[in-house]
Design brief:
single chain, 166 residues, two-stranded antiparallel sheet, 1 helix, 8% helix
Length: 166
């Protein structure tokens, strides 16, 4: 027990009473006063007629029902008399502006021919400047060749390709 009292006495001696600092609380940010809604306007009332006018009763009729008209079936664009259909676009590579085409069985395409590409939103004419088969430039392609054709405008799959007769 003697050791406990000595420890307490020792603590008392070393303990210095210090004055506590007053800690200030952080200032609270005042919220802005809530904005009040603007005062409501009174509801408008219908003006009362000053003079009474006789209103004729309208005859009750059935509502007219719109007639349903079917649009004609969509057909692919047909070549004109001075054009010969030679194939169909199978794919368009937009980053290269190149179309892959499938030719009709009895047609050929050469560099220098003038072609007309037509579709739903496509309609342009151009001269064939480059043809490639397996990344190799060629001057003429036949119906069994898988080839690419550089085009000047955007084309879409299923667009019709016609050769313009000169």
């Amino acid at each position: 027990m003697a050791t406990k009292t000595r420890a307490k006495a020792k603590r008392k001696r070393t303990t210095v009473t210090r004055r506590r600092k007053t800690v200030r609380k952080p200032k609270t940010i005042r919220k802005e006063a809530a904005k009040k809604a603007p005062p409501r306007r009174p509801a408008r009332t219908k003006a009362k007629p000053t003079a009474k006018v006789a209103v004729k009763p309208r005859p009750v009729s059935q509502r007219a029902q719109p007639e349903t008209v079917k649009p004609p079936p969509r057909r692919p664009p047909q070549p004109t008399a001075e054009e010969q259909r030679i194939g169909v676009v199978t794919h368009y590579y937009s980053h290269l502006s190149v179309v892959a085409m499938q030719l009709e069985p009895d047609s050929t395409l050469r560099v220098g021919d003038i072609i007309h590409i037509r579709g739903h939103t496509t309609d342009f004419t151009q001269k064939v400047e480059s043809l490639e088969v397996n990344h190799a430039p060629v001057t003429e392609v036949g119906p069994n060749d898988d080839f690419g054709l550089k085009v000047i405008e955007h084309a879409r799959e299923h667009d019709i390709v016609c050769k313009v007769r000169s």
